[in-house]
């Protein structure tokens, strides 16, 4: 399968040959060695310290250090996101920088950014407070000015009453009300501020109840929202002034302001002082605005500088952390001078890994080179297939069922063809196939741009399977040409139809039928079948028989793959007592049915195949009469029936006994071999023998073989019937397409109204895209998936392996931590 000097086999049929390797690395070159192996991406490390917790491992401090740097980088990324900046994708450089220097740089940048943020928050808080204070001064001044205007008006009214010599009693009362003796007047206090508009009504009600109505509240609505100094968000607010009398009322008002989040600001009645304070506040606001703008510009420049280097720093920190994580999986030598690593690598990568080890030794100026040692083991190696962007999606379909066992036959080789072909049998329409192909060609042409973007879940699935859908589209065009359907409309693409009317009027075309006037249509279905009275019976018969033929062929392919598996692993028991009887049983029944279908097609016989197959079991010795297709059919059927019956015990009984005999011979060979040249001490030997020898449970093996035999016999019938879904889905797709064309598009086209035609065309397009190109595509995809996973792969595919996950830096640039 290849030695250390050979290159990769790029063989999808079987996984790459793997080997378990031990590396003994000097401590001084360990870091560079792991780094170079990560660049190579062909070595999977085993954890030799699995029993230790992360805090007990050798390099726990270094990982903690990397985690702290990663935290700082996440802080920078969050700050850039808030500022509307994004890291530059052009900053990822290949050159490394000293991690100590990077740690110091990140610490300094974090401290500077935190200080800038803190200063900016303080300045912004002060700016927002002064902005609110200015609004309070303006609005409260307006309230006091309007109140003074009212008092002046009332005094004018009093003077007017006095000059016109009205009632003495009325003027005395009014004068008493307005101009009371200063010694008897009540001194009113007031509190001014802002309260959120949504809370203003509740604030007024609670204020009235708490003070029993002994306050006077005046509010003024602000036209624009203001930034709250505490919350930092824009809030719609009202300016309020509360007049009160007494300290108790004042305390209650202060508590209510605090509870409702109302910001209080001082206010003076003196107009001169008001204008002076407003002037001072306006000047202070202008200074703060300038200072804040300068701070934000400095912060933006700092974040842009960080953003330019962010991806490079992030990659380095992730790489460093990953290297130390791998170093923690290595074992320390007893001399404390070497690290011992174990892991899997492909055989073809031996030279590349050794070159990496030598380069690490030279670059680190180590006096001792690393040792590459291949270990012998009975442990099953990981499975590694080298795929490209075309084959990877097909391999993912197989891996979703189960990862292939080491070097067993990989179904994805055949799935590349059979999966889109079975899909196309159910989806056959070359118009719909062209739509699928065009959609995937768009994804393929723009794959470089789309691969770097963040797509939605559904779009991401479609993009990752773009080559699968492309193959599905191509095969759908092929089967659509065979079915001669373009959105359910037939075309004479390969020449004229072979059939024509009996006369020019074509009055009896539907009743008496057509007559053959030309040679047989060269490719696919004759277009005259569409719309004829025998279209559905003919298509049903053809597609049903075609489904059985393809199903039996694929199941035979699966059984043949089991032969190649057994041959590769040297398992002759499986060849003679599993592969051979399975082939005999399946082909004695359903292989014979496939033969009858082909013979009937070739001869044009009217034989009833249902009758033939049923009475082959019920009355094998009866004459076939009109159902005889070839000479000697009766004897041949009896021979096949006996072969199928003989294949069942052949499958069931010999294999468990042969496995038991094989196990006993292997154990005897091991026990005799230990007497020759054994270096182990006598006290260890009995334990080793008992450890290597496992008891053979004959009853378990026999029951397992019984279940397997019953499953295969019943599965041969059910799996063949399962392939009839090809016929059912194809018929459903064809009929749905025909209904949308006849009952929507043609019906709308029968009207002379442009609006009716437009509506009909829109409904036809949406129905075609939504139902036929989305739902039917998904349905056919799932059915094709089921046929591969169950009917095909269960004949040979074990799928109990595990994937090869090499240590690699390849995806660090894209993956989030």
UniProtKB/TrEMBL annotation:
Topological relation to the membrane, as annotated: Multi-pass membrane protein
GO biological process: vacuolar acidification
A molecular function GO annotation: proton-transporting ATPase activity, rotational mechanism
InterPro entries the record matches: V-ATPase_116kDa_su (IPR002490), V-type_ATPase_116kDa_su_euka (IPR026028)
Bilayer-spanning residue ranges: 421-445, 466-483, 546-564, 576-599, 635-653, 754-775
Subcellular location: Membrane
GO cellular component: a single term: vacuolar proton-transporting V-type ATPase, V0 domain
Keywords: Hydrogen ion transport, Ion transport, Membrane, Transmembrane, Transmembrane helix, Transport
UniProt entry tagged with the keyword Transmembrane: yes
Family assignment from sequence similarity: Belongs to the V-ATPase 116 kDa subunit family.
Described purpose of this protein according to its UniProt entry: Essential component of the vacuolar proton pump (V-ATPase), a multimeric enzyme that catalyzes the translocation of protons across the membranes. Required for assembly and activity of the V-ATPase.
Name of the protein this chain belongs to: V-type proton ATPase subunit a
Organism of derivation: Salix brachista
């Amino acid at each position: 399968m290849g030695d250390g000097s050979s290159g990769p086999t790029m063989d999808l049929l079987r996984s790459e040959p793997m080997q378990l390797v031990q590396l003994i690395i000097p401590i001084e070159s360990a870091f560079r060695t792991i780094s170079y192996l990560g660049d190579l991406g062909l070595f999977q490390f085993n954890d030799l310290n699995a029993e230790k917790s992360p805090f007990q491992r050798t390099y726990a401090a270094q990982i903690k250090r990397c985690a702290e740097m990663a935290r700082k980088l996440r802080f920078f990324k969050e700050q850039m996101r808030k500022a509307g900046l994004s890291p530059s994708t052009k900053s990822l450089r290949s050159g490394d920088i000293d991690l100590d220097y990077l740690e110091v740089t990140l610490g300094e940048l974090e401290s500077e950014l935190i200080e800038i943020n803190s200063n900016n928050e303080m300045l912004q808080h002060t700016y927002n407070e002064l902005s609110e204070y200015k609004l309070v001064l303006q609005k409260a001044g307006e309230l006091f000015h309007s109140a003074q205007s009212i008092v002046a008006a009332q005094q004018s009214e009093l003077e007017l009453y006095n000059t016109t010599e009205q009632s003495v009693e009325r003027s005395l009362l009014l004068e008493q009300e307005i101009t009371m003796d200063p010694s008897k007047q009540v001194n009113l206090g007031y509190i001014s501020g802002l309260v959120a508009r949504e809370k203003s009504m509740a604030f007024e009600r609670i204020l009235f109840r708490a003070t029993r109505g002994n306050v006077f509240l005046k509010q003024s609505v602000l036209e624009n929202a203001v930034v709250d100094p505490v919350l930092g968000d824009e809030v719609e607010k009202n300016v309020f002034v509360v007049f009160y009398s007494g300290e108790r009322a004042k305390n209650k008002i202060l508590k209510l302001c605090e509870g409702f989040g109302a910001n209080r600001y001082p206010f003076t009645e003196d107009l001169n002082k008001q204008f002076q304070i407003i002037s001072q506040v306006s000047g202070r606001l202008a200074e703060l605005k300038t200072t804040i703008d300068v701070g934000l510009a400095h912060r933006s420049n700092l974040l842009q500088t960080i953003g330019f280097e962010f991806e490079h720093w992030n990659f380095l920190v992730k790489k460093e952390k990953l290297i130390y994580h791998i170093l923690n999986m290595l074992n320390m030598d007893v001399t404390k001078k070497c690290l011992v690593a174990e892991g899997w690598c492909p055989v073809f990568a031996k030279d590349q890994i050794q070159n990496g080890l030598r380069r690490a030794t030279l670059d680190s100026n180590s006096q001792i080179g690393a040792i590459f040692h291949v270990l012998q083991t009975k442990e099953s190696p990981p499975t590694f297939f080298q795929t490209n962007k075309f084959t990877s999606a097909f391999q993912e379909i197989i891996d979703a069922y189960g990862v292939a066992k080491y070097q067993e036959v990989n179904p994805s080789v055949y799935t590349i063809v059979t999966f889109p072909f079975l899909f196309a049998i159910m989806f056959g329409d070359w118009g719909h196939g062209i739509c699928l192909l065009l959609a995937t060609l768009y994804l393929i042409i723009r794959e470089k741009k789309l691969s770097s973007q963040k797509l939605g879940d559904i779009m991401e699935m479609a993009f990752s399977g773009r080559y699968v859908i492309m193959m599905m589209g191509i095969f759908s065009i092929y089967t659509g040409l065979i079915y001669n359907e373009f959105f359910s409309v037939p075309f004479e693409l390969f020449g004229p139809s072979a059939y024509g009317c009996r006369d020019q009027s074509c009055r009896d075309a539907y009743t008496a039928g057509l007559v053959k006037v030309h040679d047989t249509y060269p490719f696919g279905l004759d277009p005259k079948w569409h719309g004829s009275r025998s279209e559905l019976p003919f298509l049903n018969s053809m597609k049903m028989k075609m489904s059985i033929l393809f199903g039996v062929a694929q199941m035979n392919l699966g059984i043949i793959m089991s032969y190649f598996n057994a041959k590769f692993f040297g398992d002759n028991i499986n060849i003679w007592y599993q592969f051979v009887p399975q082939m005999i049983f399946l082909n004695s029944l359903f292989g014979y049915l496939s033969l009858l279908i082909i013979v009937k097609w070739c001869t044009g016989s009217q034989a009833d195949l249902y009758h033939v197959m049923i009475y082959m079991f019920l009355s094998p010795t009866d004459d076939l009469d009109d159902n005889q297709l070839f000479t000697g059919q009766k004897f041949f059927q009896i021979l096949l029936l006996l072969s199928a019956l003989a294949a069942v015990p052949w499958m069931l009984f010999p294999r468990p006994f042969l496995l038991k005999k094989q196990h006993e011979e292997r154990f005897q060979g091991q026990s005799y071999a230990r007497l020759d040249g054994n270096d182990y001490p006598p006290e260890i030997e009995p334990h080793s023998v008992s450890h290597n020898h496992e008891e053979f449970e004959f009853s378990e093996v026999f029951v397992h073989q019984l279940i397997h035999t019953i499953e295969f016999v019943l599965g041969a019938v059910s799996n063949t019937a399962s392939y009839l879904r090809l016929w059912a889905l194809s018929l459903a797709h064809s009929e749905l397409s025909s209904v949308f064309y006849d009952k929507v598009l043609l019906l709308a086209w029968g009207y002379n109204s442009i609006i009716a035609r437009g509506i009909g065309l829109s409904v036809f397009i949406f129905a075609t895209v939504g139902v036929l190109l989305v739902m039917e595509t998904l349905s056919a995809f799932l059915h094709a998936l089921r046929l591969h996973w169950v009917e095909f792969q269960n004949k040979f595919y074990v799928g109990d392996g595990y994937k090869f996950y090499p240590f690699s830096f390849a995806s660090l640039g894209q993956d989030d931590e």
